[in-house]
Amino acid sequence: MPAELLHRAQAGDRQAFDELVRPHRSELLLHCYRMLGSLQDAEDAVQELLLSAWLGLAGFEGRSSLRTWLYRIATNRCLNHLRSAARTAAVTVPSPPLPEPTRLGEVLWLQPYPDALLDGVADAAPGPEAQYETREAISLEFVTAVQLLPPNQRAVLLLRDVLGYRAREVAGLLGLTEDAVNSALKRARATLQASRPAGSPPPAGSATERALLDRFVEAFTVLDVDALVTLMTDDAWVRMPPLPFEYRGSDTLHRFFSVIRAGIGGVDRMVPVRANGQPAWGEYLRDRITGGLHLAGVIVVGLSGDRIHELTRFETVVAPCFGLPRTLAQP
């Protein structure tokens, strides 16, 4: 951090401030997303933290790095949001009516994170205390599990096990004792360990991944129920935030996909994108009147070995983040 740039920013030079914080914006957005589970909420939090940092920069004395100071503001902004906001989402009645779910999900506000926003993120090289590789720490499964932790446990786990800060540093960032940090981390680790998948995903772009995804797209476009279930692990999940319905296990998923097939018949086009370091697609259906293709949702899959262990479908509100058009011209 050039001292001259800092001095200019502290003297009220907004352009200098923007240059000062620009290298950290991508990683701060990702941190806020992990804290809040929603890209929209994370973007709002980053705007709030930058305003707070601008207003408080004159008081920055350099006792920590600027990056750590920004993480302190970001984390506490997210904690304030979690403690004050009711985390709900508008729910519409699905059509066709869905079968009885395995359970009602709690993370209705979950949104995917475009891989395009991961380029150049600094925490790809986390500190020495980190316990999670970057690919796992951005996965939908990880972000979903983190959302179920109490706010303080969530913040401690992300700062310690994802970003790699030491317990003493985290205590200073959050205004806690080291004992409180270690206790919160122990509970958070125990909760997340129970939700970690048994297998690892194949390398992105590998022959194993490509073969599995080709089979998935082929089965999903025609909604071949038997083929889809065969591609999924025996304990695979299907989730559809903001709908609260979650389905798990081969028999349950067979019933679920059978209902979907009866309702829509099939999917006419799948446009590949990537989200949360995972394969994803825009799902397009043909309009029976115009013949054009309209976006129906965004599908993200989680892989374990050579099978799918999680499928999450999001509504079209997230499409602009992936550059997916609302409609496609008739081929």
TrEMBL record:
Record's keyword terms, sorted: Sigma factor, Transcription, Transcription regulation
Gene3D superfamilies hit by this protein: 1.10.1740.10, 3.10.450.50, Winged helix-like DNA-binding domain superfamily/Winged helix DNA-binding domain (1.10.10.10)
Ranges of residues in domain RNA polymerase sigma factor 70 region 4 type: 141-192
Source taxon at top rank: Bacteria
Residue stretches making up the RNA polymerase sigma-70 region domain: 20-88
Single Gene Ontology MF annotation: sigma factor activity
GO biological process: DNA-templated transcription initiation
Name of the featured protein: RNA polymerase sigma factor
Organism: Dactylosporangium matsuzakiense
Gene name of the record: rpoE_8
